[in-house]
Structures are given as C-alpha cells and as structure tokens.
Design goal:
alpha/beta, eight-stranded parallel barrel, 12% strand
Amino acid sequence: MSASESLSARLATGRILIAPAIADPLAAVIAESTGIEALEIGGYAMGAQMAVTEPLLSVSDVAECVRRIRAATKLPLIVDGGAGWGEPLHVMHAIRVLETAGANAIHIEDQRYPKRAHYHKGVEEVIASSEMVAKIRAALDARRTPETLIIARTDAMRTGGYEEGIARARVYVEAGADMVMLFPNSLDETIRAPRELPRCRLVYVNSEGNYFDRPVVSAQRLESAGWHVVVNSSACTLAASEALSRALTALQETGMTAADPHEAASQRRHVEMLIGLPAMYAVEENTVTAATSEEVA
C-alpha cells in the first residue's frame, strides 16, 4: 500500500488522525518510532528551521524538505503549500513539484500572495473566495493522481468571522477540495463547525503557544466533535528549541551540558538505531571489511 493509499484508508476509519508538524528527517523517524501515523511538513516548522519566516520559503525550499523527509519515512506526508506561490498557474506548478517530491496531501490557503510575515501576529489578508476556487480547481487539475489529497485552508474565521469561514468551507468543498482546514476562534466554534459542515472532512490546527487564545484541544475531544485530522503546528519546533536552549545554555555557563552519562548513551544508541546505523554496519562488514580481511590473509 502506498503512502497515499494508507492515508486514504486511515481517514476512512473515522478515527481522528494526529499529524505533528515537522521539518527534518530525524523528527520524522522519531515520530514514526512512537507510532505516529502521518506527518505534516508545516510552514511554521520549515521557516523556523531555516531561521526565517514561512512567507520567505520558495517552492524549491519546501520540495527539498519534502524529498529529504520522504527518503527517511514511509508515513503519509501532508505538506503546507502556503498560498500556492501565486496565481492558478503557479499553484499547478507547485502541486506538481510537491507531489513529485513525495507529498500525499497538500494544503493551500486563501491568504494573499505574497504572504506577509505579519500573519504571525494574526493579520491575515484573505483573497476573494472566487479566487480561491480557481486555485483549488487548478490544484485538482495538476495532481497526477486523485489519491493525492487537496486540502483547502481558510483563514477567514479570524478576518471575516465564524460564518464567513463556514460559508467558504462549503464553497471550497463544492469546488472539489478533498478536505478543509479551519481556524475557529473559540472552543464553542470548534465544537459547532463539524455539525454545520457534515459533508466536509475537517482539519484542525493546534498551535501551541499561539498569541490569540485559539484553543488547543485534545485529539479525543476533536474526534468526538467530528474533526478528522489534527495538526500540531508548533509542538515539535518548541520542544526542540527548549531542549537545545537548555543544553547550550548549560554548556556556555558551566562548560558541560549536564546530561546524565547513562541517559546520553541510551539516547545516542536510540538515535543511531533510528537512522539505521546497525544496517549500515552490516553492509560494511559484508563488503569493505570482508574485502580488507581477505587482502590481509
């Protein structure tokens, strides 16, 4: 079963799918080792890893990130396609590039392109729904297989209110979007939205540490409300930043990281197992090491 088929089959179960946002292959293999069933390659995570903001990422930047992660994992990859890098023609190109790189689902949003950095502050400038419909149709035409899902993201709930977001979701599904990503402003809106969109497969985004009091809701509660996928956009980025800051601050202040030697050794073995070092050792033992032994003999 391909990753796209696996994603479709998993969604068909009706159980909510947890997809943490990552931006590097090590995070991917760690996630897979924990039992995570799908990953989002998120714009916030990719931008932070490159020490820039998501709006400065090119389609080539994103595609290269997808290729590296696809090489490390067989998990389904949900890829952040931003605003599609422009007009419908640019959206078509982006879909083809990202699908070829290994994306199994791609979300595009109804924000203005070029996207502004101030979206981080909640200043989200949305385009007309008719413009977004044209982008959705272009994305559907561009994909090489219908198994690659097109997710329409709307940011209209913050800028235009709850009802505007619901109305856009309906329009986007009618245009052919496979799923819709919504950003409710409150827990009440989060619970209401699936009831008002019974024909939509919905994606929720938990944005840990967000500045806007957008609720961070458990996967279990989202599932009971009728959501289908929950993306955690910042959890991995914040966890990695905290751990690195703690270790490097200790190193600078004391000359040591304060890591427990036994825990460090255990963690190092775990990382080396995840990246496949034992299998690499076996190849070398059966090839170059064996050949060297024969030469010596």
